[in-house]
Amino acid sequence: MSQKREDFSKWYIDTIQKADLLDYTPVRGCIAFKPDGYELWEHIKEEMDSRFKETGHRNAYFPMLIPETFFQKEKDHIEGFSPELPWVTEAAGEKLEERLALRPTSETMIGHLYSKWIKSYRDLPVLINQWANVFRWEKKTLPFIRTSEFLWQEGHTAHVDEEDARKETMQMLNIYKEVVEGLLAIPVYDGEKTPSERFAGAVDTYSIEAMMKDGKAVQAGTSHYLGTKFAEAFDIKYLTRENKHENVHTTSWGTSTRLIGSVIMVHGDEQGLVLPPRIAPTQVVLIPVGPWKKNPAIIDKLDEIFVALKVKGIRVRLDDSDQSPGYKFNEWELKGVPVRIELGPRDLEGNQVMMKARDEREKLVVSLDTVVESIEKELNTMQTRLFEKAKAFLAENSHTHLDTIDQLNQHLADAEKKGHIPGWVLAGWCGDDACETNVKDKTKFTTRNIPFNPPQTKHTCINCGNEAKHTVWFARAY
Amino acid sequence: MSQKREDFSKWYIDTIQKADLLDYTPVRGCIAFKPDGYELWEHIKEEMDSRFKETGHRNAYFPMLIPETFFQKEKDHIEGFSPELPWVTEAAGEKLEERLALRPTSETMIGHLYSKWIKSYRDLPVLINQWANVFRWEKKTLPFIRTSEFLWQEGHTAHVDEEDARKETMQMLNIYKEVVEGLLAIPVYDGEKTPSERFAGAVDTYSIEAMMKDGKAVQAGTSHYLGTKFAEAFDIKYLTRENKHENVHTTSWGTSTRLIGSVIMVHGDEQGLVLPPRIAPTQVVLIPVGPWKKNPAIIDKLDEIFVALKVKGIRVRLDDSDQSPGYKFNEWELKGVPVRIELGPRDLEGNQVMMKARDEREKLVVSLDTVVESIEKELNTMQTRLFEKAKAFLAENSHTHLDTIDQLNQHLADAEKKGHIPGWVLAGWCGDDACETNVKDKTKFTTRNIPFNPPQTKHTCINCGNEAKHTVWFARAY
Ligand SMILES: [Zn+2]
Ligand SMILES: [Zn+2]
Question: Residues B163, B294: one domain?
Fold first, then answer.
């Protein structure tokens, strides 16, 4: 697969289209999630939701429309979001007195309500999550990765003090890491964002960052410690055990449908989508081959396998349409179905089927006596294999030997020449905004995060050569 | 409980507030669903969603913003909805070229997309559902029942012919009936809407109608046969087996968060909320009584019961806060928790607990040896009991002996005098719009539906006395 920029974009768009995951609409940047695209989100949602509930969170739902005055209460927040807001200005034939924004995120509405809900330390912590649609009217859009309307979850919690809020911030980042690695088979680097990349209104932002096959980064989840900023802006105070009024400390954390885009860009290949078994809408497809119509025993046997898999909770399809096997193979490969089973007259005679994993070249011969167990095992193996492959790819393209901007530029030129991806670079940073900006201007590499567990510690700033305060991942990013 | 109009409204608002189900916001008619309110919706959603999937439907997600021109394609549809639409007119600092409506329902956007997705009979039926927020900027709002933004599901299907589409319309109405009766313990009358009450753009609309404790009706779910109206408006054609271009026949069907309002108004009582066990966020509350703090064995025993219930998947809470038992009893009754277990020193000595069902006056003595089984049984019994009570109430207040508008007026006057609720009236209707309108103007009774299984058949029109074409339920409605 070509990883050159234009080629990769084209591949991404084509793959999505051929896998039938979404459609475009006449509303700028707003996409329709078709059933196979939406089901990926449903599986992500189920897994996240059960983790949130296990850790004591409950779901709620807040109004989508947010009064303009709410935004103005937190200075950084309005500065960060106002360029991207769509506004409702009229309703039911009348002009509204105050414009209402379509929520880009709900800190303000929730801040307003928490100030009514929280009275005493007995009310804390408040641990609430919301599944919702949100809007950011961005100039450049890319399916799943950056759209005007998207789906997400946003957690909003309030705590008695900084320690408790910071613990929550980290707990949720860890849940994100576990779900993205475990369910989506996408390895990530977790760490802290630099100030310039922080969420508008956060004291500290933490992220998990994933590497796409073109070497660019996707921020796959963020968790923010908001300190008392929103508490001050919205007057969210509580009475302590000692009868004093204190500001609560709040957090927020989110993941979105851009995770779907990441799955495609991490696992896909020349033949199309490759889906990790745990989120695949169809995990196994059964296809009769050879002159199967003359031999009803073939469909009978496939029906039998179908039922046996179904009973085990495996998402299986039997493709008995009139198309040729070759056509079917191609179609189900485009859709990224993890395991394909072929059964023809000769296989039946030999008491066997052919099994093909989507990400492997060779077909395997599997005995009909143990076909269900073999499929189950292959689904598990493939889930692990995809993760290990992505992990190896990440390691291979994580460069830790580039310590100056000249070395980085040389690396980029070499990569360009060889047709390699530039990957990510671990480098020192003095903490000066100007150095970060200069790296960005010269190389388009931005700071991804300051990893919690860097493979090594850097001692000099990649830009100015002064002492490094932080060891940072730099990369081009979506 | 007083069923007078103002008293009932006040009771409803108070009950919701005390049960902590929602909060109001500064955005007109937009409410925040608090965790206990939202969880009711989650349980409804789970049950509906699994029924939809069992019957071959898949979820998808469509853009929330709909171009103004889309609405204008179906004449009845724009007429019906335009008075209630909120509009986005600017985004990211610029005025939009075309206004975008916040969806009140998605037939138009989906019609546009189905015309791209459907090419041949092989693509049919298309069976898609969407869970989403929708907007109707209505003048009078009432929590859960009528709000500017609400949550719902909307199914949209396309079929080769009328027969198949009508089968779908009925299938979904039946699923609604089963879920509303089985899960929410609300008995309903199913039937066809009169033309004046049809969905804007439908050929036929069917509904299930539920009776609230003040005798008013709530339309609890609707299913529409749309014929080829949207196919014509959006050019949704398919190639038949015979190679001819034909219009598809479409359906749509929806239920919303107004079901939560119905649960409250059907089962609630003077002490507050009464929740059917199957949707209660907390099904069982365990409360230590007497001098329990001096006797750790009491909390130990309650912990044991807690774990045993949890293992069975029962949603249980242990209230070991410092409040008095009386305070706790009252609080959990307000929240409608189905079963309360009390355990004090004497109970422990006697190897028993006290069990109280939310809807019964008497407490029961239950042996500690079988307490989990007793609770499980009581949850089931209560679910059935609530349904039976509501069914008796519905039957009692369904009047079938009023055949003229004079008799209806007399009945209303009598009810008013006695402080009874007017209930519903089964009456004949000649089919003339003017008769329907006259009944409405004179009595505020509107046609609810033409029941599939009327308790009897009426032969004369309640208004004009001419031959009745239909036997209809008339009622005041939310
Ligand atoms: Zn520097
Ligand atoms: Zn008449």
Answer: no
Is the Cβ–Cβ distance between A260 and A151 less than 8 Å? no
- pLDDT, mean over chain A: 96
To which H or E segment does residue B342 belong? strand B339-343
Using a 10 angstrom Cβ sphere, with 0-12 exposed, 13-18 middle and 19 or more buried, the burial of residue A98 is exposed
Please check whether residue B273 lies inside any domain of the structure.
no
A11-69 pLDDT per residue, tens = 999 999 999 999 999 999 999 999 999 999 999 999 999 999 999 999 999 999 999 99
Q: CA nearest B46 in A: which residue?
A: A46
In 10 A of CB A406, how many CB atoms?
Answer: 10
**Would you say the pTM of this structure is higher than 0.80?**
yes
Per the structure, the complete domain to which residue B30 belongs is given by 3-267
Q: 55-74 in A: which are within 8 Å (CB) of B?
A: 58-67
Q: Is residue B455 part of a domain?
A: yes
Query: What is the spatial distance between Cα B363 and Cα B347, in angstroms, rounded to a whole number?
Result: 13
pLDDT in tens, A332-382: 999 999 999 999 999 999 999 999 999 999 999 999 999 999 999 999 999
CA of B259 relative to ligand 1 center, distance in Å: 60
Determine contact, residues A64/B149, Cβ cutoff 8 Å. Answer: yes
Q: Report DSSP state, residue B312.
A: T
Q: Do A210 and A88 share a domain, yes or no?
A: yes
ipTM of the modeled complex: 0.96
Sequence letter at residue B73: K
Q: Is the domain of B341 the same as that of B236?
A: no
- Sheet with A363-367, strands from edge to edge, namely A316-318, A284-288, A339-343, A352-357, A363-367
User: What are the E-state strand segments in A230-297?
Assistant: 237-239, 245-247, 249-256, 284-288
Torsion-angle region of residue B185: left (phi > 0), alpha (psi -120 to 50) or beta? left
> B19 and B121 in one domain?
yes
> What are the backbone angles phi and psi of residue B322, rounded to the nearest 5°?
-85, -5
- Cβ(A100)–Cβ(A88) under 8 Å? yes
Query: Is residue A200 in some structural domain?
Result: yes
Tell me, what's the pLDDT at A2?
59
Of A102, A287, A238, A263, the C-alpha closest to B103 is A102
CATH number at B162 reads: 3.30.930.10
Q: Alpha-carbon torsion B441, B442, B446, B452, what sign?
A: negative
Whether the CB of A444 is below 8 Å from some CB of chain B: the reply is no
| Counted domains in chain B | 3
Q: Which amino acid is at B121?
A: Y
Domain of A458, CATH number, reads 3.30.110.30
Residue A223 lies in a domain: yes
Q: Which of A99, A86, A106 is nearest to A30 (CA)?
A: A86
Q: Is B452 an interface residue toward A (CB < 8 Å)?
A: no
Taking the CA of residue A26 as centre, how many other CA atoms within 13 Å lie in the half-sphere pointing to its CB? 16
CATH of the domain at A320: 3.40.50.800
Q: Which residues surround ligand 2, an ion (CB under 5 A)?
A: B 430, 432, 435, 461, 463-464
What's the mean pLDDT in B193-199?
96
